[in-house]
Amino acid sequence: MTRYVRRFSKTERILHWANALGFLTLLGSGLVLYLPSLSVLVSRRPLMKDIHFWSGIGWVSLLAIIVVLGDRRGLLRLARELDAFDGDDLRWLRGGHAKQGRFNAGQKINATLTAAFTVLFLVSGMLLWLGERDTRFRFASTVVLHDGLMFAALALLVGHLYLALIHPATRHALRGMTLGTVSEDWAARHHAKWKPQ
Amino acid sequence: MAMEPDQSRKIGRGVFLLTVAGGLSSLAWGKAAWSKVSGVISPVAADIAPILPTQGWRIYTVSDHMPTFDPATWQLRVGGLVEKPATITYAQLRALPRVEQVSTFHCVTGWTVQNVHWGGVRITDVFGLVRPLPEAGAVQFVSAEQPYVDYLTMQQALLKDVMLAYEMNGKPLPREHGAPMRLVIPEMYGYKNVKWMAGINLVAHPQDGYWEQLGYDRDAWVGHSNGYSS
Questions:
Q1: Gap from B113 CA to chain A (nearest CA, Å)
Q2: B53 CB near a chain A CB, below 8 Å?
Q3: Domains, in order of start, for chain A
Q4: B110, B153 in Cβ contact below 8 A?
């Protein structure tokens, strides 16, 4: 019989799915604002701008609420795990076979970049919104930053979705992010240094 | 970096801070860098992914309905301080002397489209039909996308590359770019380049247009207005 071990806490999973929901809503409404073909198809720019702006506010507010009301100690431990890279992590990043902890080095980089992109999306988005109202907040490169982030975040998302949904060796990880648990065998193969509590 | 498997370094925070710092600093260099990169990738990207705005255009509208164009019913009303108000049909518009120009389009939000090929008529040829009165000191451009309106002084309207464009890059002006006709004034930001032109009125003095009522500069010189100084 397959034995399962807990990989992600409830707070971690809620944070992940809230982030996914916010990002996808912003991506959809943002693409309507960005792509001429979709702008013509939808044609309701003022409404789409409102949806995009308030989704952004809702996104970061939701993340903040989850951090405040969730398992804060657990999240602090998570941040420490993502921060720490050991010799095996660096070897893994260079393409070598090395035992990994609860997160492999790629997942640590993905999570770290996603967090940094969130900050930059928020800052550049607020600058776009404020810049439409006050020239002091208007910079010629804000739109380049916001659009560039979208492409970078989209590239991360495509890789993430491939590994979580399609790649046979890794897609079992999706169970961890939905139900919270993964099989003990799979954990031993992919995260050999991780000692489940 | 040599490190034992059980030794660890706090590298994640460095990646986070460097990414945030790089992103924020791009507010100073992003546009210049992107201009160089897009010059190289645009011709290739247009073939690979025609859906992408590889030419750099964004479509901005202010109302919930993008105007549609019917050549059989479209009319341009030209009036105000003129001797002889006129209503110009699409066929009459196309019968006026046609000119072409290549100019760069700048949006106040920061994006730029270089080398746009425009075809259309000079405003003086339209003025020739209605004969402005001496007291006409400005021109009001009325869009079919209500309530969008904007103004130029007579001096600005008579700049040599101001055009009433009905063609873009060799094709009839697409709907999203203001079909059948838009104003083109390359010296000023895009919000002065009124799309979906429905009327032209000569008036004594310029007033604030749609975006100017929301705080943008009336004289929207590229690089010298709206908080920019280059």
A1: 13
A2: yes
A3: 7-190 (1.20.950.20)
A4: no
